[in-house]
Amino acid sequence: MSRQRDFLGPYRLARLIRGGSTADVWEAIEENTNDRYALKILKQTSMDDKGELAALKHEYNIAKDLSSPRIIKVREMRTEAGVLFLAMELFSELNMKQALRRGPDSLAFMLDKIVEQAAEGLYYMHTKNYIHLDIKPDNFLVSRDGTVKLIDFTISEKKKTGLSKIFYSSKVARGTRSYMAPEQIRRKVCDERTDIYAFGCVLYELCTGKPPYTGDTPNDLLNRHLSSSIPSPIAQNPNVTKDFANLVKSMMAKKPEDRLQLPGQQNKIVPTMWEFLKVFRTIEIFNKRPRKPEISVFDHNVGIKGADDMFIKPSVSSDEPEEEKPRKRKPKKTTEEGDKE
Description:
The chain is an alpha+beta fold. It folds into two domains: 3-90, 2-Layer Sandwich (Phosphorylase Kinase, domain 1), CATH 3.30.200.20; 96-280, Transferase(Phosphotransferase) domain 1 (Transferase(Phosphotransferase), domain 1). The chain is 29% helix and 15% strand. The protein has helices at 3-6, 50-63, 96-100, 105-108, 111-127, 162-166, 182-185, 192-208, 218-227, 242-251, 273-280, and strands at residues 7-8, 11-19, 23-30, 36-42, 74-80, 83-89, 130-131, 140-142, 148-150, 157-158. The strands form three sheets. A six-stranded antiparallel β-sheet has the order 1-2-3-4-6-5. It has a two-stranded antiparallel sheet with strand order 7-10. The longest helix is centred in the middle third of the chain and has 17 residues, at 111-127. It is an enzyme of class 2 (transferase).
C-alpha cells in the first residue's frame, strides 16, 4: 500500500475487520498517540449515495450524545481524501449472533452477566430519549469475559413526543424482521416498548439458540409477530426457569402496554428497561447453571485465540493488538439498585 492508501488523515489502516455492502470496518492506529480505533469507512461506490451519506451522519449525531461503558463510543466523523468515515472505540470481539452459531451453550455459562450489561446499555439509551429500533444479537458485541457493548444506530431516532407523535407517519417499516414489534411492522409510533419487544426476542434466542418466530416468506415471518401465540423458551430449552420464561414472554406481548406485565403483579406497571432490570436481578435464567465449555467460542478453530484472529489481516502490516486478558467476573447483583448512567 502507498502512504495515501494506507492512511486516512492521522489514522493508519492496520487491518480489515469486516466488509459490508456499503461500508468497511478497519482497525486503525492514530499516528500521534498510537491509540487503536475502529474506522467505519463508506465504500467508494457509496460516496455518491445521498442516502448512505445521510445514514452515516445520522448514526454519528446519535452516537456522539451517548456516553456509557455499555455502548460503543464514537470519537469523531471526518472526511479525508473525499472519504467519509467514523472513528470509534475498538472493541474487536464477536457479536452475539456469531457466538450463537456455535449454539447457546457458547454463552450460557455467563448469560446472566451478558443480559444484564446488554439491558443496561439499552436502558441508558432510553434515558437519553433515543429508541434503537434495531435491537438484535448482531448489534451487541460480547467479549470472552462477558463484557457487552451496544452498536449500530443507523435507524435509531429520538422518542416522539407532542405534535411529532400526533402527526407521525412512515411509508416504510424499518428494522430486522425476526425482531420487529407489531407496532413497528404496522409503521406506527415506536417508543421504549418497541425495543423491549425486540430485546425479548433476543433473550429468547440467547437461551434457546433460535429466534422465537420463523416463516417461509418475509411476510409470513412478519405475520407471526402480529398474530401468533408467544412461544415459551422452555419448549426449546427445559433448563430455562419458569420465572425467566415468563419475563421473556411478557416482553413479547403484542400490545405495547401489556409488556412486562407479569403474573402476580398487583398493579400494572409502565414498561421500561429499568423495570426489566429490577425483575431480572432477582431471578435465575437456568434451573441448573451451565458449565463453561471446554473449548471457548473464541477458540473453536486451530490457531484462533480470540475474535481478532478471525478477522482478515492484510500482509502489508504486522501490527496486531494485544490480546485482552480476561477479567474476574463479579457476583450477580440481587438488589434492585443499579448504575444509572
